[in-house]
Structures are given as C-alpha cells and as structure tokens.
Amino acid sequence: MEEEKEQPRDIFPNSPDEDPTDLARKAGKTNLLQWMEITVSEPEKRTTTSMKVQDTYIVYLIETRITDVKLKCFGDGTTSLWRRYSEFELLRNYLDITYPAVVVPPLPEKKVTYVWQNSATDKFDPDFVDRRRAALEIFLLRVAAHPILSQDKVFIGFLQQEEGWKDLVYNTDFQSKADSKLKSLSASFRLKKPDRRFEELKNYSNELENNISNLLKIRARMADKIYGIHKVHANYSRVFCEWSGIEKDMAEPLQSAGHYMNVFSQSVDNALDDEEQYADQLKEYLAFGDALRSVCRKYECLQYDLERAEDNVSYKAGQKEQMVQGKAGSFSFTGMKTKLFGGDTPEQRDHKVKQLEEQIQQADQELQLANQETQKFVEAALRDIDRFKRQKVKDLREIFTNYAIMQIKQSKKGIAIWTSAKDCFTKM
C-alpha cells in the first residue's frame, strides 16, 4: 500500500514534503537569491474606510520567481502579492528582535530629508513613491542575500503568504524578546567592563552618519545652485530669440544659439533626477548607522546581565563566608535583631549556609549561561559586522564611482551644447 504523504504546510501552499529552504540548503545554496528572483513593482494608491475614518496608503506588488527548476515548489514557480509599508516595518522589527547579532538592513525613509528646491516631499508624489519602491526592493534583496535572514520562514512567508502572514509573525511572540529602551539606556551607562570593539563600533556608526549626513547636505546645496544656474540659461534663450527678430544677417545663428541655451536649461532636470538615486543609496547607509548601534545596544544588555550575574555570585559567596565565620555584615535589620535577641543556633546557621550554597550553585549556573550567551552573541555579531563592512566598501565604491561617471557624462553634454552654440556664433 502506498504510503500517505504529509500534508503541505500553510506557508508553502503547493510545496512537497520538504520546504524550499531545506531543499536549497541541501543543494548548497546559502541564500534566497541563489534560487529566487524578487521584484517590487506597480505601487498603487488605495483608500479604505473603517469606523467612518478614511485611510489612504500605498501598496506595492511583490513578485517572486523560482529560478532553479529543482526548487519550483510553488506551482509554476511564480507568485505575486500586495504589501503596504507598515507590513515592511513589521517584518523588519521582527528580524531585528529575532536576530539580535545581525546588522538588519534598514527601510527607506518615511519622510523626505535633505531636500532641495525641486525635491518631491509629498509621500504620495509619484517620484517619491517610485524611489521608495526601489528602496523597498533593495531592502528585500539585501535580506534575501543574507545567509541567516534569508532562511527565516517568516521572511519567506512575507514573500509568499498573503493571508494570515501577520498572525504568523505575532504567533512567534517576538515582541516579548525585545529589551526595553530603559534597560538599554541603563546598560550603556552602567557597564563595568565594556568590550572595546563594540565601543569603537558605536563611535564608528556615529562618524559614518555624520560624514554621510554632511555629504547629503552638500549635495542638496549644490543641486539648488546647479538647478538655478541651468534654469537662468533659459533667459539666454529668450534674449537670443528676441534679438534674432531684429537682426536679418544674424537671425538664424542667434535663433539656433537660443535653441541650444534652452536645451542646456532643460538638461538639468534629468541629471538631478539621476542624482536622487545616488542620494537614496547614501541615505540607506545613513540608516545603517542606527542598525549598527542596535547591535551594540543588544550587546550592552547582555553584558549588563552578565555583570549582574557576576555581582550576584560574589554577593552570595560573601554572605556565605560571613555566615561560616559568624561575622555580621554591614548594618541590616537581621544584624540588629541578632544583637538584641542573640545569634542563630549552630543548626540554624548550618541550614542557612546550606541554603546559600544552593543559591550560589544556582547563581553559578546562571552566570555560566549568561557568559555562554554573551560569548555566542559577540562571536556572531562580530562575524556579521565584518560581512557588513566588506559589503559597505563594495557598495560605496560603486556609488561614488557611478556618481563620478554620471557627472562626467553630464559635463560632456554641457560641453557639446556649448560647442554647438559656439559654432552658431562663428557663423554670424
């Protein structure tokens, strides 16, 4: 009799007995992008009404396609679903809390920053929406390329499971694992033995933010000036065209020169639109600064718990030593009672010593567990930070190189336009 197959799991509606991540891992594929394509497209404005209150928002179409024929576990290997920005936020919060030692990629900004006079600032503006769409796609691609995050079932569910995905996230109870902001703040100030490497990382993240922030400010000021200079050239165009009307011999050259001045004036629009893409890429690394500090804050909480466990063991050991020697500690209600009514009998003292020994043993176990957890976190965090730094160097090299190439091309276009204008003037 043929053996009955296990029912498919909800997260993979059409999958076989093994889900795709397990199959991919066995095939030696360490991240999602080695067997899946992910795109974010077709942003769409929607409005819903609940309790007579309207909510207007943008949704994005997420499409995935399985590229490895051995792993086409979703029917035809292609899926699509809609997600809004708040769902991206929920996914990132889940990843940030669930994987504390990972530098989780940031989401694009909710509100436009480092603007210049022609920037789109309305969150429903088509240009802003499309730039956010591109940044959301980069976020998903970065997560999908990560060797740890890409294997998470909740993340894959985000890409594949439209109905019930939020329930899947909340059922993980990830929020209970989050350290409070108050604890994080307390830990950062009260650590006795902070790890120098994480202190340096915090300083580095602040400096990274400052440098990128200054670059974006300079770029915004330059965009304003360049835009103004180019648009003023439209006045050249108007003057040359009007002048051509009263000069019979020079009419045609003046009119042609006016045309080239107008072309030069209009050329700045596309150039600055292209620049926005590089600004958005820099803004991603601006946000990475907080992702790095998040890892540092989580380390500080673990180190704080470890130091408290060490203090607890020392305190219990001191209590036991005083009890064995029959000495009174610092002023306490118990010490006062002993002086007034006499000390414990030998049997009572032995019983208390035994209790303290049990408490010390338990405290030692807690200390050992905290030490192991902290050491494991430090190793994993430093490994992922090293991965991030290597990726950062590669990305920034590409961003700045492409930006330079773009500026060179734009300058060559300007030279070509002015050369054509010069030819017009020589024909007068």
Layout of strands and helices, then pairs:
Blueprint lengths: L19 H7 L9 E15 L2 E14 L11 E7 H14 L27 H20 L7 H8 L4 H6 L10 H10 L5 H49 L6 H75 L7 H9 L4 H81 L2
Helix pairs in contact: 6-8, 7-8, 8-10
Indicate the structural class.
Answer: mainly alpha
Low-confidence region ranges: 1-17
Sequence of strands across the biggest β-sheet? 1-2-3
- The SSE string, one letter per element, is HEEEHHHHHHHHH
Percentage of residues in DSSP E strands: 5-15%
Number of strands: 3
- Radius of gyration (Å): 32 Å
Mean pLDDT: 84
What is the straight-line distance between the termini?
97 Å
Q: Biggest sheet, open or closed, and with what strands and sense?
A: 3 strands, antiparallel
Which word captures the global form?
Answer: elongated
**Total DSSP helices:** 10
The helix fraction, in percent, is: 55-70%
Give an overview in words.
The protein has about 425 residues and is mainly alpha-helical. The protein contains ten helices and three strands. The chain has helices at about 20-25, 85-100, 125-145, 155-160, 165-170, 180-190, 195-245, 250-325, 335-340, 345-425, and strands spanning about 35-50, 55-65, 80-85. It has a three-stranded antiparallel beta sheet. A hairpin with a 2-residue loop joins β1 (about 35-50) and β2. α6 crosses α8 and α7 (about 195-245) packs antiparallel against α8. The longest helix has about 80 residues, at about 345-425. The radius of gyration is 32 Å and the shape is elongated.
